[in-house]
# Entry
Amino acid sequence: MYFCRKYKAMKKGAKNSITVFSNPDNGLQKDYRFSLEFFVFQENGLQIAYCPSLDISTSGTTFNEAVGNFYEMFQLYIECCVENNTLHDDLLAHGWKLQKKQMQPPTFAVLMKKPEMKKLMGGNIGYEKVVAPARIPMVV
# Structure
């Protein structure tokens, strides 16, 4: 069972962190460390948190709730992929580059090809970009 250490999403600009791993106290868990970017914007009276590099989203009635819900969604996404042994393939399918000790999300140019990103960046939608340091189990 994996768990996520979820730090409170303070006001905009606060440092947030997402950590997903199985046994954090043993110090033996190998993991990838990276920065996960997602966007929070308002739509139909809700705050939407959307991560184009993983194509996952969630919502909340406030900014903090949307960010907190996103952390939980990220945790569930990783848990599901690890349990089904599909994390490596899913990340590659989303354009991630995986190396021995490092992983990189798709470039901004690649993400801008997605219709959702074109709408977000090209429209009159106000958004907040959130960059959260993240850790997930290393896949083999």
The chain has one domain: 3-137. The beta strands are 3-6, 18-21, 31-43, 46-51, 56-60, 97-98, 103-104, 127-137. Residues 1-15, 21-26 have pLDDT under 50 and may be disordered. The chain is about 30% helix and 35% strand.
